[in-house]
Amino acid sequence: MKRSHLMYTSLLTIYNTHYPLFFSFPLSSLLPFFLSSVICLPVLAQSENQDMSSDILPDNYLQDAPADSVIQGYLCPMHPAVTAEVDEQTCYICGMALVDGRIKMPHGSHDSHYGGIFFMARDTWHHIEGTMPAPGVFRFYLYDNYSKPLTTMHASARLVYQEFRDENGDETRPPVETQLIDADDGVSFIVSDRRLQLERDFHIRIRFKQDQKEEDRFDFAFYAYSQTDNPPGTLPTNTSTATLIIPDSPEALFSAMLERVEKVEMLIKRSRLNEIYLPALEAKDLALALAENPGDTLDEEQMKTLNHAVKDITKAAWRLDAFGDFGDKPAAESSFKVMADGVARVREIYLRR
User: Fold this and answer.
1) 3-class DSSP state for residue 181?
2) Cβ atoms of residues 276 and 283 within 8 Å
3) E strands along the chain, which residues?
4) What Rg, from alpha-carbon coordinates, does the chain have?
5) Do the beta carbons of residue 186 and residue 152 sit within 8 Å?
6) What sections of the chain are H helices per DSSP?
7) What does the alpha-carbon distance between residue 28 and residue 343 come to, in Å, rounded to a whole number?
C-alpha cells in the first residue's frame, strides 16, 4: 500500500521481537554465528522451528530492499512519524525504542509486487499479497517485513467464501471454503475456482507456522484484475505523498472531516482495506484541528462533549489504520462504529448552535 509519512500508526501495542536484537548488534557481528545455517539456504531463510528473522540474514540480504526504506535519524519502526535527533528515546504511541534510521528499515515499503493487495500480519513480521490475475484465479504471496519473499512450506491457508456465525460470533455451521495449494515458485499459494470473480468479498485464513494457535484473517475484494509493470523479483518504490489542507472555519473543518469519514465507510464496505488509512488519519487530523478551532459559540458542556468525541475519533483512526494494515474487515467495521459515533456527537453540537 502506498504511504510515506502515514505508515502503520496504531494505538495497539505491537512489539516485534526481531527488532531489539537486530538493532542492538551490528549485523556483521551476528553473521559468524549463523553463517553455517545461512550459507545453505536460499533467499528464503526460514526453517520449521525458526521464523525468518534479521538474526540470520545473509550479508547482502537487504541489497534489494526498497529505496524509501533508507531513513535518517532515530525513529519508531512501527510509527516512522515519531522521530528524535538523539538516541535512547521511545515511541510515545507504542513504547518501542527508536532505532537508527540510517539503515534499511523494516516496513519501509508496503507496495505490492504483482499489482495485488498488500497486508501485514498481526505479528508484524509476516506480510502477504493477494492477487487476482485472471477470472477464477487467486494467488497469495508471502513476504517478511523487508518485503522479501518467504517460503510457504510451513504455512497452511484456506480461502473462505462465506461463514455462518451467530450474534456472539460462534460458528453455527461449516463455512463455504477451499484450500489454497502451494504454487511451484515456493513463495505463494494458488487456487482456481469459478466462484472467484470481481467485486465478490472473500477472506483468507492462514497459519504461518504449524504451531500457530489462531489463524490470521485477511479480507479481499477485487474490482480489477491484478496487473503490474514490474518484472518478478523487482520491488516498486513508494513515491506517494499526501498533503492535507486544514480549513479555517469550524463548519468547513466538520464538512471536510465528514467527507473523509464517509470515504472510510465506503472503502470498508467494498473491502478496500489497504486504502482506509489515509482518509481515516485525515479525519483524525481534521477532528483535532476542530478541537483547536471550535468557534466562539460553544459553552463549557459542549466543549467537553466535543473533546470527548474528538478523542474517540482519534483512537478509532489509529485502530482503523492498524486493522487496514492487517486486512481485518470485522475489526475495521467495529472501529468505524466508534468513529461514526464520535462524528455524530460532533454533528449534534453544531446543529444545536
Assistant:
1) strand
2) no
3) 74-75, 83-84, 99-100, 117-120, 127-134, 137-143, 156-165, 171-179, 181-182, 188-192, 202-207, 216-220
4) 22
5) yes
6) 18-24, 27-38, 250-269, 277-292, 300-326, 329-351
7) 51
Residue 223 has pLDDT above 90, yes or no: yes
Residue 293 cell numbers, joined: 478551532
CA distance 24 to 97: 11
CA distance 304 to 302: 5
| Nine-digit cell string for 61 | 540480504
Cβ-count burial of 72 within 10 angstroms (0-12 exposed, 13-18 middle, 19+ buried)? exposed
Residue 73's Cβ-side half-sphere holds a number of Cα atoms within 13 Å equal to: 9
**Can you list the alpha helix ranges (DSSP code H) found in 158-276?**
250-269
DSSP string computed for 191-213: EE-TT--TT--EEEEEESSTT-S
d(CA 286, CA 27): 42
Are 120 and 325 in contact by the 8 Å Cβ rule? The answer is yes
Whether 201 shows a pLDDT value over 80: the answer reads yes
Domains of the chain: 18-100 (no CATH), 117-220 (2.60.40), 250-351 (1.20.120.290)
Quick one: CA torsion of 335, 214, 271, 340, rounded to 10 degrees?
-10
The mean of the pLDDT values for the chain is 77
Residue 352: pLDDT over 90: no
Q: State which amino acid sits at residue 28.
A: S
* Residue 131, C-alpha cell as written in the block: 492477487
SS3 275: helix
Coil vs helix vs strand at 156: strand
E strands, 24-183, in order? 74-75, 83-84, 99-100, 117-120, 127-134, 137-143, 156-165, 171-179, 181-182
Contact 305, 338 (CB under 8 A): no
User: Do 218 and 126 touch, CB atoms closer than 8 A?
Assistant: no
Res 75: pLDDT: 78
